[in-house]
Write a structure and sequence with these properties.
2 domains; binds the ligand C[C@@](O)(CCOP(=O)(O)OP(=O)(O)O)CC(=O)O; GHMP_kinase_C_sf; alpha+beta; globular; binds adenosine-5'-triphosphate; 5-stranded mixed β-sheet; 385 residues; Alpha-Beta Plaits; Ribosomal_Su5_D2-typ_SF; steroid biosynthesis; cholesterol metabolism; Ribosomal Protein S5, domain 2; sterol metabolism
């Protein structure tokens, strides 16, 4: 192959959380999860792949730095699973399965900062490799899952259900799309970035500790998640925002309760996270109706869900309660408000300035997409290794 293929993949945010594996090696989850795929316009991973007999060895660059493949079992697994797929689809002796691969990837948002970069990153890696070798088939979620569990959900747009499955080899642990992003186009997502630096305990380590030490996890897995998964899928299909919002908040709260029930505890939320939670409930109480919902991953950053019709009013209250000295364009990013001069409806007490680093407003998005596929001068690659 003397072409370079470039693809983009989105971030996804879980409203029913994946937390705990039944198989660490195959990355098989204990429970189902449900997520929303975000628009690539504001947040995405972008990955380019070149492969061929002229590439001297497998290399992966991330944000300009070499990712050591030799010590990264997950990267190695993604490469070997793609090569296995090449043999399955193109024949055991297909020369392409022996080619070395050069990968160059970057995120347009903070990496390893609790903003789901591994989900977008591994989904992008697998999708780009599949495009480079003409392998785009239904197998991709199962491969992306072995890069990072939540990555399997970024293979689809809109609303996605990752079924935990029961098979020991994971043949039934895959992602399916519940509905496309066009199903609920009014949905908006507001990301409140409290802290975008590396977190102390990664999701991988945190959930392993929960499986080993939490006494509440099994109840969540066996009792809570099956019912909530069914109910939230129903709420999504019926576009019942109030039901969707309550289930999302309850699952986020329970997920963090499990983290606190882990020993030693995984403390992902901080004081600002709790101020956000209180503000959202106070706002909904003042509105007399659930207008906005929150969820937190393994970090202090908040992901809010709100319908477009309620966005401007809420944003006016939000920036009054969480003020900043930053310029408005730096502080509020992404989709612009249609009514920037909206007056805050409830006049809540402003908190101290700059509790939030910035706010990103986005919407639902589609799955990964191929954005470039062009021929290259092989000599330029041969001499660049
Ligand atoms: N574009 C990418 N291509 C390949 N791998 C990536 C990419 N972006 C991130 N990763 C991998 O994901 C790791 C970060 O995953 P980690 O789970 O620690 O953080 P996160 O996914 O950003 O946060 P969280 O999982 O809590 O939402 C990186 O160290 C890297 O190994
Ligand atoms: C809190 C979460 O975001 C956990 C994500 O965990 P990862 O998918 O990052 O974990 P690994 O499978 O070990 O790579 C909840 C979720 O996204 O469902």
């Amino acid at each position: 192959m003397d072409k370079v293929v470039t693809c983009m993949a989105p971030v996804n945010i879980a409203t029913i959380k994946y937390w705990g594996k039944r198989d660490e090696h195959l990355i098989l989850p204990l429970n189902d999860s449900v997520s929303l795929t975000l628009d690539c316009d504001q947040m995405h991973s972008q990955t380019s792949v070149v492969a061929g007999p002229f590439v001297k060895k497998d290399t992966v660059m991330l944000n300009g730095h070499v990712m050591p493949i030799e010590t990264n079992e997950r990267l190695q697994r993604c490469f070997s699973l793609i090569r296995k797929l090449i043999k399955e689809k193109k024949g055991e002796n297909c020369p392409e399965a022996q080619w070395n691969i050069r990968v160059c990837s970057e995120n347009n948002f903070p990496t390893a900062a609790g903003l789901a970069s591994s989900a977008a990153g591994y989904a992008c890696l697998v999708y780009t490799l599949a495009n480079a070798f003409d392998l785009v088939t239904e197998d991709l979620p199962a491969i992306a899952r072995q890069g990072s569990g939540s990555a399997c959900r970024s293979i689809y747009g809109g609303f996605v259900h990752w079924k935990a499955g029961k098979d020991d080899l994971g043949s039934d642990s895959t992602a399916v799309q519940i509905a496309t992003e066009a199903h609920w186009p009014e949905m908006r997502i507001i990301i409140l970035v409290v802290n975008d630096s590396h977190k102390k305990t990664s999701s991988t380590v945190g959930m392993k500790k929960s499986v080993e030490t939490s006494e509440l996890l099994q109840y969540r897995v066996n009792k809570c998640v099956p019912e909530r998964t069914k109910d939230i899928i129903e709420a999504i299909i019926n576009k019942n925002f109030v039901k969707f919002a309550e289930i999302t908040m309850r699952d986020s709260n329970q997920f963090h309760a499990i983290c606190l029930d882990t020993y030693p505890p995984c403390v992902y939320l901080n004081g600002v996270s709790h101020e956000i939670i209180t503000f959202i409930h106070d706002y909904n109480d003042a509105a007399g109706h659930v207008k906005v919902s929150y969820t937190f991953d393994a970090g202090p950053n908040a992901f809010l869900f709100i319908l477009e019709k309620d966005l401007d009013l809420f944003m006016s209250e939000l920036i009054q309660v969480f003020p900043s000295d930053k310029s408005k364009s730096k502080y509020i990013r992404g989709i612009k408000s249609t009514n920037p001069d909206q007056v805050a409806p409830y006049g809540f007490e402003p908190k101290e300035k700059d509790l939030l680093k910035y706010i990103l407003v986005t919407k639902l998005g589609s799955g990964p997409k191929c954005i470039d596929n062009h021929l290259i001068d092989i000599d330029s690659i041969k001499n660049s290794d």
